[in-house]
Amino acid sequence: MAVTIDPVVFWERLSKLHKGWNAARDADGVWKGADALVIEAGEADEDRLYSKSQSMQQWLLGWEFPETVIVICSRSVHVLSSKKKVGHLEPLKKAENATLPLELLTRDKVDNTANYAALIQAVKDSHAGAVVGCLLKEDPKGDFAAKFRAALTAESGLQQVETAPGFADLLAVKDSTELACVKRASIFSAVVVQKFLVQQLESIVDEEKKISHEQLAADTEDAFSEPIKLGVKLSPDLLESCYSPIIQSGGNFNLKPSAASNGDMLYYGAITCSLGARYKSYCSNVGRTYLINPTKSQEKTYKLLLELQGEAIAALKSGAKLSSVMTAVVNRVKSKAPHLEKHLTKNCGFGTGIEFKEGALTLNAKCDVVARPGMVFNVALGFENVEDKEATDKRGKVYAVFLADTVLVSESGAAEVYSEKAPKQWADVSYYLKDNDGDEDDDEAGGSRGRRGEVEILETRTRRGGVSQTEKNETAEHLQSHQEELEEKMRLDALERIARQGGGGAAPSASVETPIAYRNPDHFPQTSSTGGSLKTNQTHVDGKNEALLVPMFGRLVPFHISTIKNVSKSEEGAFTHLRINFVAPGQSISSQQMPKEADPDAHFIRELSFKARQASNLNNTFRLIKELRKRVMAREKQQALEADLVVQEALQLIRTGKIHRLRDVNVRPTLGGKKQPGTLELHQNGLRFQAARGEKLDLTFKNIKLAFFQPAEKEIMVLIHFHLHDPIMIGKKKTKDVQFYVEVMEASYSLDNTRRSGYDPDELEEEQRERALRNRMNQEFQNFVKKVEEQNPACEFDIPYRELGFYGVPPHNKSTCFIMPAVNALVELTEPPWFVSPLNDIEVAHFERVVMGLKNFDMVLVLKDFSQKPIQVNSINVEHLDALKTWLDSCNIKFYEGPANLNWGSIMKHINEIGLEGFYDDGGWKFLNMHDSDDEDEEDPEDQESDFEPSGSEDEGEEDESDDSDFDDEVDSEEESEGEESLGSDESEGKDFDELEEEAKQEDKRRGHFEDQDEKPKTKKAKTRDQYSDDEDDRRGKSKPSSSKSSSSKPGSSRPGGSSKSSGSGGKVRR
């Protein structure tokens, strides 16, 4: 991290120090009459967490500068340090708010005698030059500080005095910036206690685990590195633990802040816990006691302690001596429980800040310091080694209770408790466990703990139940109440959208231009029956005008190539047959491919057939039609891809200065079709990825809708993912999602090469290398993410919540994937095609197949844009249902649930037809409440999905052909790519009805089908095959039994063995 020093803060605080020192420089004051002040720091010492020299450097500079001497004189300030550190301090000399001359001396690596002499001379020139204030109790590490102190001591006429109390008094009162840091640290400490430590304790006791105090303390300290998992948005780089958390139980208690967790196993009795977080070097502290099956005496002792801490906080007022706090506490103990006075801690806490413990501000009976607004104290007190006469085992005979909070002395009089988010009332810290092993005699005894049967479950949690039934009911009631509020809010938001859009109807569909081959007769080619011009008795393909010319009654009639559905050629005897099928109503094709009907009574040509003895013309026409169709379809596909592309702003490159880079990363989708590593660069208004072969990909911040950072925890890769507002072209693909990643381990291993044992040194070394690579890449990606956020604060990266993740089958993916909620979206970013569903786009969620006994359910997310197809996530384990409901409710998303899969194609079509206004007038989404059996009867039970099928509800047979329009283009393009076989696959077209009927009957007999399909019961296999569309069956080459909703005797119905259609302009075949 780059070292930057705020000149405003530096000079403001230095001026505060300078004025305070000059104003109280008398010999009896905290500065001991010092004529100059010296702050000397030796080499970095990891064993020393806190010192006055480090605290003063942090306070002035915001950084720790080892091997640095600062001398503050009456009219100047002098600093001796290394060349690099002097460079960081150089801008301070030119600051606008500089109040004193700043002299910078560069440390000599060999001999600093001249530098020491210059500093001593500055001391002599300050005031009387006889007394120098130093931090005499500190012992700096290294030769540099030792030699300077020796030179200072050797100087005659200079008296050294201790000025640590002066610096402590200076740091005691904090400004608003410092108080904000303390408050954040305190809140995080309280959150760690409540959301991690308490939950760990409950889990340990509930599952009867065995864990040592040291291990539990280490696990708690590890939680400091991932604040986002606790719901706290603080940078982990700015957070650290003030000390290793202290966990004590089982009779061995030490309530001093210097205590440590031992290796004894946790005892289910009185458990004291204390921890402190440090944010931007400012400390905090929280201490709590949790009691398992407490006795009556323990309850009385704890409630007394709670009262005493309240007394101490109340006594901590501006203008009061700190000794009055201890006096008030002792007086209350003497009056209420004099036998506990000897067990009371020796003080009630101490001042805190950059240093965890400020000895000069200890809350004991001897401290005469007056409390001032802006002071922060760790109010900590307890009863230690109290004997419990009601205990039944040895480890429970002695116990302790302890409470600690970070408290601010405010101007208004009442102190403010920063760490109040960690509850400490009796109901929050006491646990009464059920014990099913107790016998009737023990229960009759009563009055004792544990096995003697006292089981109070009034406001506490139980071991067997996890959460009490009362709490479950309250949670359910709160969820239901909030969902009702969301339903009303959703209705009002929808009405607002209607008013804003000027109506609730569906948007008009875009008109399709009529294809035109020749705009005027002059463009028509010259024809003749003989000669060099086009012959009127032959077919011709005009590639320039994209038209097919066919002979009719002695004339060439043009057809635009886009009106041709397919063409086939066959040889029958001496003749060659060319059959051309046209696009017409009544076919299972996309409505967007339909030519515009200028006249509702218009007639369409379905088919043209030609035969000739000479095959050359028909063969040439067949080839040219295929080539022209392929070219036209490729062009139209490209135009469709680029239709909604938006011109992006140019990337503003950083020409001078440091460019932050992420090297050796891969991009998906790939640029050139092949995986190749490259470098991701951060520029002024976006990012640039440059591959090794020179290809470039630019992303601007304005086009980034959502950004995600997913570290490699249980995945094989670490990645950053961008979901865009407008799609971009990467190669020949249009995409709204771009991902940059690095694989940190192999996705698969060769079994032939894996013959080593689990404890083989090479195997262990390989695992260590993988672990080191994963940690390094996670850190590199995290650092790059921070740089991006600093460059553009609007681009905030979201980290998915792994603990809330679940397995399911997302749309566009046929396999089960691990889907994770994030702050702004529901995502699956590891396996392409990726799944990113922004929460702001979701109107309502619906859980389907929620039936007692089923292990899986489906989730449908209906988008606010009703023209888009709802998103369906299938096959989610039912154990995640409650967690998903709670998460959706916390995101203010209304949800419903029902026992059946719904036909969302028909539902959304109906909503778009009646419009939003009419839809909400009819009750809106309330019809999704399908808890009654009457609702289930509305749907055919044979249409219900089995619990193992991942999808299919959107492929119901009753859907209109318009519902499949999204897929028809893809199917048709695949048919064309299959060559001549595809073009000739629809040979049944063009035959009259009698021929089609006869073929169908013969096929039915050969396959053993019933004449009437309604007489034959459906099977699971038939149901599955029914879900495919006609075009899909033709492409797959499979025969499909007709549905029970279409009789085999009806003209135009679908037949086994082919897609039989009448050659007339018949209506659409209903399945």
TrEMBL record:
Q: Which residues form the FACT complex subunit SPT16 N-terminal lobe domain?
A: 5-167
* Domain of life, source organism: Eukaryota
* InterPro entries (alphabetical): Creatin/AminoP/Spt16_N (IPR029149), Creatinase/aminopeptidase-like (IPR036005), FACT-SPT16_Nlobe (IPR029148), Fact-SPT16_PH (IPR056595), FACT_SPT16_C (IPR048969), FACT_SPT16_M (IPR013953), Pept_M24 (IPR000994), PH-like_dom_sf (IPR011993)
Q: List, as start-end ranges, the regions of compositional bias called Low complexity.
A: 1040-1063
Task: Give the Basic and acidic residues compositional bias ranges.
Answer: 451-462, 471-480, 1002-1017
Q: Where is the FACT complex subunit SPT16 middle domain?
A: 539-689
Biased composition, class Acidic residues, residue ranges? 933-987
* Chief place of localization: nucleus
Q: Where is this region: Disordered?
A: 435-480, 927-1071
Keyword terms: Chromosome, Coiled coil, DNA damage, DNA repair, DNA replication, Nucleus, Transcription, Transcription regulation
Database matches in Pfam families: FACT-Spt16_Nlob, Peptidase_M24, PH_SPT16, Rttp106-like_middle, SPT16, SPT16_C
Record keyword Transcription present: yes
Q: Where is this chain's protein located in or outside the cell?
A: Nucleus; Chromosome
Where's the Histone chaperone RTT106/FACT complex subunit SPT16-like middle domain?
Answer: 806-898
Q: Which GO terms describe its biological process?
A: DNA repair; DNA replication; regulation of gene expression; transcription elongation by RNA polymerase II
The UniProt entry's GO CC annotations, sorted and at most eight, read: FACT complex
On subunit structure and binding partners, the annotation says: Component of the FACT complex.
Q: Which family does it belong to?
A: Belongs to the peptidase M24 family. SPT16 subfamily.
Q: Function of this protein?
A: Component of the FACT complex, a general chromatin factor that acts to reorganize nucleosomes. The FACT complex is involved in multiple processes that require DNA as a template such as mRNA elongation, DNA replication and DNA repair. During transcription elongation the FACT complex acts as a histone chaperone that both destabilizes and restores nucleosomal structure.
| Protein name according to UniProt | FACT complex subunit
